[in-house]
């Protein structure tokens, strides 16, 4: 087992154990004793002989036995000394509860760095500092100062926030949610969320993992671990900081750049992790995953004793892309014989307001037998004749017969009422409202799809000229520019096999005319200046020119406009470019996310892209399926397929350009942004062409390249 | 003894760049040099409250304080204090004493030729009194400058002085060829020698974070190591953090002004590699960002003013070569060495 010292220690020292009940050091020791830890417990405190009936040691070095885990709760300035002693004692892991480290500023950060190097020196792993501690219910280890101990279960939770962690523990307790492990990671000076996720992959007691986080420490490692974990068990992530105000709050809380929220969502998509928006959704999902099997399809049977709730459930399912199929004919016939004639045997399946447990049982059995039903939402409203306790019991019993998920929605019941307790004991998740149950089923199905998808290879293309790109970039770098000129961007795109229109720099009216004659009309004339980024806005682009005379006038116009409007801009002349025939306009972009690397964007192109926001995102490197999904996720897809009898667009060449950009961004880590807008996509077989390209280089050059 | 008078027709043309370089090159060639600034109009209060001319201080560093003089220091409301009429005599006396025993005197004019007219000691008059050859440094931003130069020529002629040569400065890089091929012959046809055409220099035309901070009087709370970072652009950080990072990445050497509580903007700016941040409203960001700013050497400066006022304030700050500003001095020497016929000016 990975992180054995933390997740399965046989001896624990509590350094800073205290006799005073209000102190954290007392709380931890008491929790450890009360939670029934089977291993040895050693309180350490130089000023006490006995605490809570345990012999107290002056220091760790006095303990005769080997120590696996030390939980440290002493003032920050005493932590280094204590950890040094732990190192000499060959302690394997240290949990530093104490606050006063990097979260407090400069001195704290220095202390934290010293703490980490001290641990490294002795080969100890470190959890925290500034954390709530950890809990592993299977071995009765509660090494935290949380107010309650959870009941054992198969959910493992990792939280970046200690405060939220203790709230989660209490809530789980009130709702009889069983936990396998609970980890508060604190400042993540050494062990990060990802390290614990890694340990849970092979942890037999963990069936589902829930994470609360505000930001990721090491994006690449997280991607790798989250992907491996999601292959084996569901990973449910509640990441806050999704709105502008939220991001601001998270920035101040963690002091690190959260990275863009779209990038995080893209990271979840890439790894198969399930991102949820709210605490409610977080718990709803954990409840379902802890016991229920996965739905193997999108077909849901809604069983209800009331018409209204059935309709609500049907609406929610439809909106979420779940199907409500009819049962097979013979099953319906069977039901018809046993149900009153006015029962509705469609889907929702209305067992009527006077339904007893038997009718529910018959309905459930049909759902089990059916080959078209993948999952069941079972709704019960408290009506006069409804024997809710018996129904709950029937569900709990019959659910064990089959590998199909059943989610209950007993509406209008107290959480502590007998029927709900029966459901809980029978491991049936119950939701206050059917919409929540539908959403949970949808996310379970998403997880089923993600975890059963075969690994697709990263798409690569050949025939790219990396040396040419380096050459072009170095000219801009030599001039101290971060924005590449249009000409440079075109040359780079061309070196990467992205089709661009023929264009040549003209330095005078005469040259412009000669070039236009040689490349053929119609042409466009654009001012050539690395300092002018928004040429169109400044009137420095003239399109559809058809004669030598017009080219000359256009040349003078754009150059003069540039000189008047931006007197300090370097203007080297104007670009004469072959006019690009119009096609369907799309945008393909990539920005380098500080955490997760290149984030690819696709959407409908042109000037409305920022307004419509009809865009999709994925992290590079893309697989062919990723690229195609990016297209199909947007409304642009319908346009590309062709509306009103238009022929379909050239998807192959569009995907090819996306793959090339993905590969380019992965190779050149000093390119922080690239955007083609618009890319004209032509009819199938006729390719596509970039009309405008923006490219930005990093200021501090990172020379490293892809291995 | 020879005297070279370097003057201009507007401020920030680049007189100091030329003067400092000529002093260096003349010194390298074993000449005994003095520096004289008859009248200073841009004095700042010195450590003891006295008025100090920064150009004279800088030249004092290069030539030794005994070889430089600036007898008349004016502030903008000079009439309140300077009522006596011995200004010209003071100038001449001071010049006599500083120039004795020198091979070459470098005289630097005020921003325009006309300053001092009230006492009859404007540039052409002084050039004639001090028997100096007059050179003009011209900021060549647009072609209308030609007219101003010709007017200056006529003005000097009126006082019996011929301009010995022009140095054109701050020419936009890609227009050098045009100025050389079109503008230079035009001046020469008018009897004005063009002795140099200098391109706009990034280091010389940008400010350092230190200069900006000195002007604003802010508190540097982190990243002190980066006080000599160059600043070319000012940006306001008032957008969402996601757009901020892309916005900041597209410019170079940017100073970002934002509300002190915008920790998210601070983090984005640190990530994008800004030159510095000014945090306004006397608000402090989360202490957790300070170590990161230290690590990257990106200064965080807290000021009491609001963001808009701060932007107005920084826009008023202009760069000047200060004593011991070795980065700028090196750039100036390189610029003049490569683009000006300094040997002709020094008659070497």
Name given to the CATH homologous superfamily of the largest domain in chain A: Succinyl-CoA synthetase domains
Task: Give the biggest beta sheet of chain A.
Answer: 7 strands, mixed
Number of continuous helical runs of chain A: 24
Radius of gyration of chain B: 23 Å
Summed over residues and divided by their number, the pLDDT of chain B gives a mean of: 91
In words, what does this structure look like?
The complex is a heterodimer of chains A (707) and B (348). Chain A is built from 24 helices and 28 strands. With 707 residues, chain A is α/β, with parallel strands linked by helices. Chain A folds into 4 domains: 4-288, 3-Layer(aba) Sandwich (Rossmann fold); 292-452, Succinyl-CoA synthetase domains (Rossmann fold, 3-Layer(aba) Sandwich); 502-578, Dna Ligase, domain 1, CATH 3.30.1490.20; 584-697, D-amino Acid Aminotransferase, Chain A, domain 1 (2-Layer Sandwich). Chain A has a 7-stranded mixed β-sheet, with helices on both faces. The longest helix of chain A has 19 residues, at 434-452. The two termini of chain A are 31 Å apart. Chain B is an alpha/beta fold. Chain B has 2 domains: 2-204 and 321-346, P-loop containing nucleotide triphosphate hydrolases (Rossmann fold), CATH 3.40.50.300; 207-316, 3-Layer(aba) Sandwich (Udp-n-acetylmuramoylalanyl-d-glutamate--2,6- Diaminopimelate Ligase, Chain: A, domain 1), CATH 3.40.1390. Chain B has 14 helices and 18 strands. In chain B, the strands form 5 sheets. A 7-stranded parallel β-sheet of chain B has the order 6-2-8-1-9-10-11, with helices on both faces. A 5-stranded mixed β-sheet of chain B has the order 13-18-17-16-15, sandwiched between helices. In chain B, strands 3-7 form a two-stranded parallel sheet. In chain B, helix 5 links the parallel strand 9 (133-139) and strand 10 (163-171). In chain B, helix 1 crosses helix 13 and helix 9 runs parallel beside helix 10. The longest helix of chain B has 14 residues, at 15-28. Chain B starts with a strand and ends with a helix. The chains are: A alpha/beta (707), B alpha/beta (348). Chain A binds chain B through residues 102-106, 109, 244, 247-248, 251-258, 260-262, 480-483, 533, 567-572, 591, 594, 672-673, 696, 698-700, and chain B through 141-142, 172-174, 200, 202, 240-242, 245-246, 249-252, 262-264, 266-268, 270-273, 285-292, 294.
